[in-house]
Each structure stands twice: as C-alpha cells, then as structure tokens.
Amino acid sequence: MGVKGGAWRRRTGVVLGATGLVVPLALTVGAGSAHAATACTAGTGPYQKQVEKFLGRTVDGKQSTGDCQAIRSFQQTHGITPSAGYAGPLTWRTMDTMLQQRAAGKTPNKAGKCPVNKGRIACVDLTRQLSWVQDGSKLVYGPVPVRTGRDGAETRTGAKKVYQRTLNHWSTLYKVWMPYSQFFDGGQAFHSTTKSMWNPPGSGGCVNMRPNDAKAYWNLLKNGDDVFVYGRKPGT
C-alpha cells in the first residue's frame, strides 16, 4: 500500500525528547533564500499564538513578516499546503502532534495501551503518530514518528502479526518502491519513505517510517511477531 519556543528548541530543529525524534523546522529565512523570493503576506490565523510559541517567535497573536516566513518555512518543510504562512488548523494540528510525540519521551506506553504480555511487539499509536518496539514492558526501540493512513484509507486498528517481509517491495497499486516492507494486515505494512513523517494527509494505509527507523524494524522483527495498532489519526 502507499504508503504536530521552549528550552528544547534548536536553530535547525526541535528535539522531541526521544531517540531520533528531531523535527526540522527551518526557522530562519535568509534574505537571499528561495523562501524570501515571494512576499509573505498571509494574515493572522486562528492558531497564531500557539504557532508562534511552537516556533519560538514572540507570542503576541499578531502576524508579522517574520512570523509568516517562519510558518511558511515549516509548511514547506513538511508539505503542508497551501504553504502561505497562515497559522491555520492543519498547521497547528501538525505541531500539536509533534508536541505530543515530545511528551512521550522514553515512556510511550505509560498508559499501558500496548500489550506487555506478548514478548516482542511493535506498537503503533495512531493518535500520536508514534511507533516503538517493546519486549514485555521493556522499550527496545523508539519511539519514532510515523505517517499512517489518511482519512478514508486509515491504518486498521487491533492485534496483528507480521506475515510477510520483502526487503524492497514494489507496490503495483501506487507504483512506488517500499523498502524494508513488513506486512501485518491485508497489504498494510511498515516501510520506509522519503516523505516527511508530518506530511498530510497521510499514507494509503501503511505505516510510513524514516529509512533508518524502517531498517531498524527490519532487523528487530520477524514473521510471526506481534503488532498492535490503536488510537485514531488526527484528521480522520
């Protein structure tokens, strides 16, 4: 298948507190950059203050040229359209998901929603767009951000098992390569993609992963291993 400032802000990204969870923000827009070629004129959005805080801007709820450029850069980085620099619902929802991922830290299963009596298991939390591998209650890998099924093609919830592994699967439906594919439910699989994990609206049902994370899952899992999917992807 086919495949949301603070002391934690950095100049080139937001560190989300868990291994591998680094969100590229491209906060600064140089005068000679491609982003500056077109005037940024979007007005104040309904989530202006929240977005300003996330981006480490002055939180006054009033759109400035600098705010507009920073918001637009974030949108372009993650494929949010239109990339006009407007602090709208989709942009804030993406940032809010990122904040929830940061809050997960190294205890993504704190609420105990992913079974701890299965041994090795890959957990997928659709609500926070997070996945990790645990062995009992011990965290083995992650949590890492994932990109799951869009509205109308949701990643199905429930208890699953890895049933087919293909190092570089070719999707006849979407005409794309799916590296490190590990299928767990009727054509839905973990696999690598080069898209941003925060790129809306989502996949065609698969659990998209960054290349290094998909490779790690490939090395950690095998046919017959358990997968548990729960929650609901924002926007579905």
TrEMBL record:
Keywords: Cell shape, Cell wall biogenesis/degradation, Peptidoglycan synthesis, Signal, Transferase. The active site is at 191 (proton donor/acceptor), 206 (nucleophile). Residues 1-36 form the signal peptide. The keyword Transferase applies. Gene3D superfamilies: L,D-transpeptidase catalytic domain-like. Pathway: Cell wall biogenesis; peptidoglycan biosynthesis. Residues 119-230 form the L,D-TPase catalytic domain. InterPro entries: LD-transpeptidase (IPR050979), LD_TPept_cat_dom (IPR005490), PGBD-like_sf (IPR036365), Transpep_catalytic_dom (IPR038063). GO terms for biological process: cell wall organization; peptidoglycan-protein cross-linking; regulation of cell shape. The keyword Signal applies. One of its GO terms (cellular component) is extracellular region. One of its GO terms (molecular function) is peptidoglycan L,D-transpeptidase activity. PANTHER family: EXPORTED PROTEIN (PTHR30582:SF33), L,D-TRANSPEPTIDASE (PTHR30582). This is L,D-TPase catalytic domain-containing protein. The lineage of its organism: Bacteria, Bacillati, Actinomycetota, Actinomycetes, Kitasatosporales.
